[in-house]
Amino acid sequence: MVGTLFTGATIWAGPTCTPQPGWLLVTGDSIAATGGQDTPPPPADTMIDLAGCHILPGFVDTHLHAGVVGWQTLGVDGAAWTDLREALAAIGAAAAADPRAPWLLCWNARPFRWPQRRLPTAAELDAVAPGRQILVSGVDVHRGAVSTQAMRSLGITTLRAQAGDVTRDRRGRPTGELWEQAYGEALARALADAPGDAEQLTRRALDRCAALGITHAHEAYVAPQHHERMLRLAAAPAPRLSWAVGAGAGLLSPADGPAAAPEGDYGASGREAKLFLDGGDRCAVCLPARALGRLTLQAVRESVAARHPGPLRDAVRRRSAVHRRELHLEYLRYTDRELTGLLAGYLEAGIRPRMHALGNLAARQAATALRAAGAPPGAAVIDHLVLLDPATVDLVAASGAWATYQPGFITTFGPQIADGGTDRFLTVLGGRRLLDAGVPLTLASDHPAGPLDPLGNLRHAVRRTMPDGRPLQPGQALTPAEAVRALTVTAAESLGAPGGIVPGHPADLAICDGDPFDPATRVTRTWVAGREIRGTAS
To answer: Could you tell me which residue ranges the Amidohydrolase domain spans (predicted)?
Structure first.
């Protein structure tokens, strides 16, 4: 039999992704056969000895933002800023170094780790970079801050928003802080004006995916007007590319409905629409009423430790209400009736809804609306599910929806959740709870909000350790085989594609130089459709 024979490796083969030493034969663009050490390998044209290596199915990232990642290479990275003063100093230095740039874009700020617990105001940005158009984005890409000149050019009063999306001072004047829909529309306008080839920038981000063993990347949001650009990008041989279409006005705006979704191909998957049911920091959460006192006390302790009122001020500003012995953080973006009608329209049009739901209140709404809209099993995806309770998990399981969660959030947002005390009342990134309830679970990155590296995300799903070494609800850990399956076989199936090292399936492979759960291991070779591809992980 002609083809390429891999020998000497540990192969994570079959639908269960159970690792075992053996061999793997690829012919054409497909997997022809696999075998264990006790099975003689067949002859082949090419033989590759991979002693000590592991061959995994190609990773399928069902939720990332390659377009945003591409633009970040042209801006200022604020991931290392530790407080507001350091951020302002860095912004001022960047503005002085590039005085002619039409926009100064700053990314990955983490104000939830700063003592002040807020982004700069427009006045503060004006003080360090007078007259400049500046946009500072939080790492979750749900929150930002703009300078006065940016507010003028954006037409801050014309940005569509729900109540509270544009922060105002006591006299009703915008402070420069933007949330959710207002932030998303500001980001879209800033990127439209910024110099740079969006298609080329996205291509570079996809090349990085390929170098990390990602053989199928699913872009979680594309504006309808950029659909043709995605079709051109999808014509490249690797990685496979698919996407969901969202609102034309901006990433976080209400969905435009099925009539606005382009016809035809959506790359390597079916037609899909993106809906945001809640926000990032402002996610819709339901807690026991007794949590109010404990969370407030925790905020006081954080303020004392930080020697700054920021944590307490942040807690007091939450939009909360008590309903039937439950504390609701009321950040839902749709009413139940609006969402059910919208889902019914998408389903009737043959478009799969993908719903952003971080909090359990949003996940509860998603699952209930799917059942009310008559969604069949597998017809929709619920993304994130960061905060859960047992009753909501049961609703998600009954809805038949696919679930996607990001184990890398344990490093990005885990300390914020644990330090705030929410983990005392809710399950955080509950992979075990979802799997045990029978929910079809996939892993993803949500990069840049979470780390892109698939090997790192596998390890987070299994080890659940925060950057400071603290475990985060270790009982929610997946087994290694479960984690690999969720990032490969189940992830591919959720996009309507075959996945896994199974005879007859596409030969999409991630070849590692050791055990994938060893922190020193790296992906060294990536194969898509029977061909080795090369990208850049820089």
So the answer is: 47-532
Burial environment of residue 330 by CB neighbours within 10 A (0 to 12, 13 to 18, 19 or more)? middle
Q: Following DSSP, what letter does each residue of 287-318 receive, concatenated?
A: EETTHHHHHHHHHHHHHHHHTSSHHHHHHHTS
Alpha helix ranges (H) inside 180-260: 180-193, 198-211, 227-234
- Degrees, nearest 5: CA angle 76-521-41: 135
488 DSSP 8-state letter = T
Give the number of other Cβ atoms within 10 Å of residue 241's Cβ.
Answer: 23
Max CA distance (Å), the chain: 79
CA distance 48 to 195: 45
Per-residue DSSP letter, 54: E
Answer whether residue 160 shows pLDDT above 80.
no
Cα 128 to the chain's mean position, in Å? Answer: 32
- Pairing type for strands 272-276 and 352-357 reads parallel
Q: Which residues, in sequence order, are CB contacts of 301 under 8 Å at separation 6+?
A: none
Q: How far is CA 23 from CA 470, 481, 508, in A?
A: 39, 19, 15
Phi, psi of 128 (to 5 degrees): -95, -20
Count CB-CB contacts under 10 A for residue 153.
Answer: 17
CB burial readout 464-475, b (16+ within 10 A) else e = bbbeeeeebbee
Q: 385: alpha, beta or left, given left = phi > 0 and alpha = psi -120 to 50?
A: left
Task: State the pLDDT confidence band at 266, using cuts at 50, 70 and 90.
Answer: very high
Q: Summarize the confidence of residues 324-344 as an average pLDDT.
A: 92
Alpha-carbon span 274 to 62, nearest angstrom: 13
Helix (H, G, I), strand (E, B) or coil at 18: strand
User: SS3 for 59?
Assistant: strand
- Distance (Å, rounded) from C-alpha 492 to C-alpha 498? 6
| Burial class of 195 by CB neighbour count within 10 A (0 to 12, 13 to 18, 19+) | exposed
- Which token pair is 100? 């002619």
Confidence category of residue 310, pLDDT binned at 50, 70, 90:
low
Task: Give the chain's end-to-end CA distance (angstroms, integer).
Answer: 38
Estimate to the nearest angstrom the gap between the alpha carbon of 439 and the chain centroid.
Answer: 19
Using one digit for the tens of pLDDT, what is the confidence trace for 248-257? 999 999 999 9
Please check whether residue 69 is in contact with residue 449, taking contact to mean a CB–CB distance below 8 angstroms. no
| Token pair of 122 as six digits | 């427009």
Q: Can you tell me the distance from the alpha carbon of 244 to that of 527, in angstroms, rounded to the nearest whole number? A: 25
Half-sphere exposure of 263 (CA within 13 A, CB side): 0
Which H/E stretch holds residue 509? Answer: strand 509-512
Residue corresponding to tokens 């230095």: 93
